[in-house]
Amino acid sequence: MINKKEDIPVFLTIQPKVLYFGTPVALITSIDKNAKTNIGPISSLWALGYNLVIGLGCDSKTYQNIIEIKECVVNLPSADLFENIEKISNLTGLNPVPANKSGKYRYEEDKFSAGNFQPMAAEVVTPPAIASCPIQLECVLQNHYIVESTIDFIPLIASVHMKVVNVRVHENLVINQDYIDPSKWSPLIYNFRHYYALGEKVGKNFRADV
User: Fold this and answer.
1) Is the domain 23-194 a CATH 2.40.37.10 member?
2) What does the alpha-carbon distance between residue 159 and residue 146 come to, in Å, rounded to a whole number?
3) Residue 2 DSSP class
4) Residue boundaries of the structural domains of the chain
């Protein structure tokens, strides 16, 4: 049966400023050649197997540290940490502040203190993890490429491929030894620049093991 024309919903063609249509928030911890730590909040991240693809601004301290040191920890915060994250959202580890961030961001050397985060040593990589983040993915750089540049060929945005070499999860979230309990894990979701937690469970995929 063909739907009647009046049954088809109305769509509008728009040009939104961002396409953060519900993506997880991550806090990337990294270090520079002087062993200074940095925390970079991001929301452009996806995983396939033990591979992570991260979208980063090329003028960010996080991007520069990863390219230089080739390691990081991708810390996944629970939804209740949004206020800590927002405390560092307008801070940058670059001094001087990049021109495109001037007026909106300010330099901060110690984002751990600024966000009231506690560092903890990673097991495999050199950068520290964040103790309050229930899931910690220790990563090494595999590849990266520029996805957007200015007309003068100045890099703006990069896609960074990281390999996860170690996974640590808070014991309260672990079931059956190697599984994360989805009923207890509540990731922080970035939904068009607003923070959300997960809603009610509506079902599970046929491939789910637990």
Assistant:
1) no
2) 6
3) P
4) 23-194
